[in-house]
Structure formats: structure tokens, C-alpha cells
Design goal:
With 254 residues, the chain is mainly beta. It has one helix at 242-252, and strands at residues 5-17, 35-48, 65-81, 84-88, 91-95, 117-123, 128-137, 141-151, 162-171, 182-183, 191-192, 197-204, 231-239. The strands form 2 sheets. Strands 1, 2, 3, 4, 5, 6, 8, 9 and 12 form a 9-stranded antiparallel beta sheet that branches. Strands 7, 10, 11 and 13 form a 4-stranded antiparallel beta sheet that branches.
């Protein structure tokens, strides 16, 4: 028995960078000499046609099914002054491979191995230490939690994937009138290895039980107005080189 699969990949890349030239300019410095922007977005669609499947299981390919994955990366740099540069390299991923990227269904899409969540999430390209967390929602915001999904780095791992999930912060009684920033003390600031996923979950309450709700009868969508809703987290972090990360982890474990 054989099943045909359709794999569609859409990739978009871009570069915005200006190199110095020899033409004199009226301004003392070309902004293009100071900034560099690179980005890439990949969309992968997997589909399987209908076929006869006398056996089925968690690692089997389901007939007549389709799933997609999306990821986007940004590489942004700025020259602050002579000898000093600042770079940031965020990545966001979302989606599943066929049959939740398990068994024979998962292999055609290498992108799918990096994902497996309905919500978009941020993956750390380098080791980092977190310094502060601030949830932001509007009047119907109820709670926001931040968790770290650590990379599976065991030698006996069958394939990369989440080995452990830890809740780092959870604001269970959010109030729009108090946008509180929660800084970490130096000795407990989360140390996260490269490849860790930072996952944010938000809850909203559009019922009459929420005394801050402007109108429980109204449908509510995303928007910038206070009567609309939104959800994002301000997360302050500093990237570390691997040697510094390992030194800090060793100091914590003493």
C-alpha cells in the first residue's frame, strides 16, 4: 500500500543593508551604514490524499489530511559607535506536521520538527538570562503565564523535542489599571539554554463576573482601543555566550 503526499513550501527572504560608497554625502553619516536587517519566513503545507488504511495508530498517517507550519526569523543589527554593535535574532514558530509530526507522517517537513503548538512562540537562538516580565492586556485580561519549554539534549533522545516544561511566571490576578513589571533577583533569574521555547498563555474574562468588563454583551476582537482586547508580554533578557552560561549554571548548582 502506498500513499501520495503533497508538500508545498513557500519561503520569503529579505535583506536590507547599505554598504559604504565613495560618493560624498551632505549628511555626516548614511543610516544604511549603521543598520543591517535580514529576515526569512517559511510556510510549509503538507497534505495526504485519501487511501485505504486497514491499520491505524498514533504513529500512522491519517488518510485525507493536511497541516501547515509557519516560521519567521529576523536578524537585526546596529552599529552603536566605533567598536560596538548590537544584534538581535528572534524566531517565531507555529503549526504541526501531519498527525502531530509523529511517525511516518512527519518526515517530509523538516520545519515541522521545530514546532508543535497552536499558538506562535519564541525560540531562543542563544543561551539567555531573563531579567523581567510584564503582562499586558486590556480590561478583560484575567491572567498570563510564561513557561519555558527546554530543548531535549539527551544523548539517547530519539528526536529533538521538549524534554521538560517549567512555569517561570504566572500573574493570576491581572488588572488593567496596574501594569506591574516583575523583575527577577540576580540569584534566581532564569538561565535558559539555546533552543529553549518561551511560551506565553493569556486568559480573558468577557463575562458579567468581571467588574472591569465595559459590556459583557458585546463581541470583542483584537484592537488598540481599551474596549478592544490584546495580549502580549514584555520580557527582558540578555543573551549569553556558551562559556558564560555554563559558568553561571555551575555557580547556581554549588
Amino acid at each position: 500500500m502506498s500513499a501520495r503526499k503533497l508538500l508545498i513550501v513557500f519561503m520569503m527572504t529579505g535583506v536590507a543593508h547599505a554598504a559604504p560608497d565613495s560618493v560624498p554625502k551632505a549628511f555626516p553619516e548614511d543610516p544604511g551604514d549603521r543598520f543591517s536587517i535580514h529576515f526569512q519566513a517559511t510556510y510549509v503545507e503538507q497534505d495526504a490524499q485519501a487511501f485505504r488504511a486497514p491499520y491505524s495508530g498514533p504513529n500512522s498517517l491519517t488518510p485525507k489530511t493536511g497541516r501547515e507550519t509557519v516560521d519567521a526569523t529576523l536578524f537585526l543589527g546596529a552599529r552603536l559607535w566605533s567598536g560596538a554593535e548590537f544584534w538581535i535574532n528572534p524566531e517565531a514558530d507555529q503549526g504541526f506536521g501531519l498527525n502531530n509530526t509523529l511517525g511516518v507522517a512527519g518526515f517530509p517537513s523538516g520545519e515541522a520538527y521545530k514546532v508543535g503548538r497552536k499558538q506562535p512562540y519564541f525560540r531562543l537562538p542563544r543561551a539567555a538570562v531573563l531579567s523581567a516580565f510584564q503582562p499586558h492586556m486590556h480590561n478583560r485580561g484575567k491572567a498570563m503565564c510564561m513557561e519555558a519549554i527546554y530543548p531535549d539534549i539527551r544523548a539517547d533522545s530519539a528526536r529533538p523535542g521538549p524534554a521538560r516544561t517549567e512555569t517561570i511566571n504566572c500573574v493570576s490576578n491581572y488588572q488593567f489599571g496596574w501594569h506591574i513589571t516583575y523583575p527577577y533577583a540576580d540569584d534566581v533569574a532564569p538561565l535558559l539554554p539555546a533552543g529553549t521555547i518561551i511560551h506565553i498563555t493569556s486568559w480573558h474574562d468577557n463575562t458579567a463576573a468581571n467588574k472591569y468588563n465595559p459590556n459583557p454583551k458585546n463581541w470583542v476582537g483584537s484592537g488598540q482601543r481599551t474596549i478592544d482586547e490584546m495580549a502580549f508580554a514584555w520580557v527582558s533578557l540578555t543573551y549569553l555566550d556558551q562559556a558564560d552560561f555554563e559558568r553561571r549554571v555551575a555557580a547556581r548548582n554549588k
